[in-house]
Amino acid sequence: MVCVYLFYVIFVCYIRIIMSVINFTTQKTEMPSFQESEIGAWIEKVADSFNRKVGALTYIFCNDERILEVNREFLQHDYYTDIITFDYSNKRRISGDMFISLDTVRSNAELFGRTYDEELMRVIIHGVLHLCGINDKGEGEREIMERHENEALAILGNIGQ
What we know:
It is built from 6 helices and 4 strands; from the N terminus they run αβαβαββααα. It has helices spanning 2-18, 36-49, 64-75, 102-112, 116-131, 141-158; strands spanning 21-27, 53-62, 83-87, 93-101. The protein is globular.
C-alpha cells in the first residue's frame, strides 16, 4: 500500500512538472471575476513568446494586510505592493507563486486612470514576465517591463477573435 501511495505522489509531481497547471485562489479577499481558461491560454501565449513553457503557477489574490505580511515575512520589506512573485522556474519552464493585492490593484487603477480589470490583467501578467526573466528594478528596466506588459495586454485583446 505504501508503494502505491508513493507511486501516486511521484506521478502527481511528474504531471505538475510536464503540464501547465495554473491555479487561482484567495486569502482574506474574494475571488475577482474573470474567465480562468481564457487567462490561462493568454499566460501560455505570453510565456511562449519568451520561449518558455508554463509549469505550476499559483495566483493568490489577497488584501493589503496579507500582502504586507508576506512582504515582511519573506522579503523583509515594510511596504504595500501590488504583486510579490516567488520564482520556482526550472530552465525554460516557468513556475511560481504570485500574491496579488486586490486593494492595491484597485488604488493603482484609479491612480493611473485605468479600469480595475485592465490593471488586474496588467498585474497578473507582470508576475509571468518576471518569471520569464524581465526585471523592473534597475535603470531603464521599468520601461522595458511596461512595454512587455502592453504587448501582453494586446495579445489578451486578440484571444478569442
